[in-house]
């Protein structure tokens, strides 16, 4: 499925970034240093095709990519995207949450690999419900808060403890489309663990695939990984998952109960 066209604001950001990139190339060449798109892509550790698409406004920028451009170009994120610069604090907070998976949190502590929740806490833990705006916010995606009437879901404390999960690393998202039917349908809510991005055969993940957010099953054949749908319709064929065009956002750890009224 092709990525959605960028809006005018995103196109303006891409144009500004491209100008800064051209200036970076000129400076590098004057110093006799590698300045090609290939060299830049290698430095930022994603594919040249993805780099070209970011610069030419084919796929939208995200926090993770913006930070890489900022470091390579030697400019602040605000030099090409005020919107992403304002989200940098949220990104840093999420990074800190991941680090807390091996340290101590505000309302939980780790004993070995097991999380023990404070027994004085409620029996449920609120998890932020977000929209993944790279079509699937930190580590290759952006997360924006859902509407203010429904910004969190509650997970059982025992579920979090039993599965060694860190609440700050969990996000709830709504499933879009019917590629995962009958397991998931449009509007179903799944919880993803953004601290768990190591691919495991046949497990479900939220993935930023070529700038679009998808929930898919990861399947391995030989040395290759593929994104697989549950829907048997031939339109939902497998796609190879490799390079910077396929970034695992997090593993699906829970699917919330469905409301069946008006669905059959």
TrEMBL record:
Keywords on record: DNA-binding, Transcription, Transcription regulation
SUPFAM superfamilies: lambda repressor-like DNA-binding domains, LexA/Signal peptidase
A Pfam cross-reference name: HTH_3
PROSITE patterns: HTH_CROC1
Cited Gene3D superfamilies: lambda repressor-like DNA-binding domains, Umud Fragment, subunit A
Residues in HTH cro/C1-type domain copies: 36-80
Name of this chain's protein: LexA family transcriptional regulator
CDD domains, per database record: HTH_XRE, S24_LexA-like
């Amino acid at each position: 499925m092709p990525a959605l066209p960028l809006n005018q604001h995103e196109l303006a950001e891409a144009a500004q970034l491209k100008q800064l990139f051209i200036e970076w190339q000129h400076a590098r060449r004057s110093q006799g240093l590698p300045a090609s798109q290939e060299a830049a892509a290698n430095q930022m550790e994603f594919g040249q095709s993805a780099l070209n698409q970011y610069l030419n406004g084919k796929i939208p920028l995200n926090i993770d990519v913006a930070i890489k451009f900022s470091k390579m170009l030697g400019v602040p994120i605000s030099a090409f995207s005020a919107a992403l610069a304002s989200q940098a604090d949220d990104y840093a907070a999420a990074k800190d949450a991941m680090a807390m998976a091996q340290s101590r949190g505000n309302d939980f502590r780790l004993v070995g690999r097991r999380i023990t929740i404070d027994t004085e806490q409620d029996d449920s833990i609120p998890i932020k419900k977000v929209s993944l705006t790279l079509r699937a916010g930190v580590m290759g995606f952006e997360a924006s808060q859902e509407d203010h009437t429904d910004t969190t879901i509650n997970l059982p404390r025992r579920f979090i403890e039993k599965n060694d999960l860190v609440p700050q690393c969990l996000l709830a998202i709504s499933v879009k489309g019917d590629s995962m039917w009958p397991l998931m349908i449009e509007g179903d809510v799944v919880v993803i663990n953004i601290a768990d991005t190591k691919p495991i055969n046949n497990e479900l993940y939220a993935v930023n695939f070529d700038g679009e957010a998808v929930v898919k099953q990861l399947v391995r054949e030989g040395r290759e990984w593929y994104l697989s749908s549950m829907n048997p319709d031939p339109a939902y064929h497998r796609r190879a998952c490799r390079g910077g065009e396929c970034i695992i956002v997090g593993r699906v750890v829970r699917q919330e109960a469905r409301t069946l009224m008006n669905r059959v």
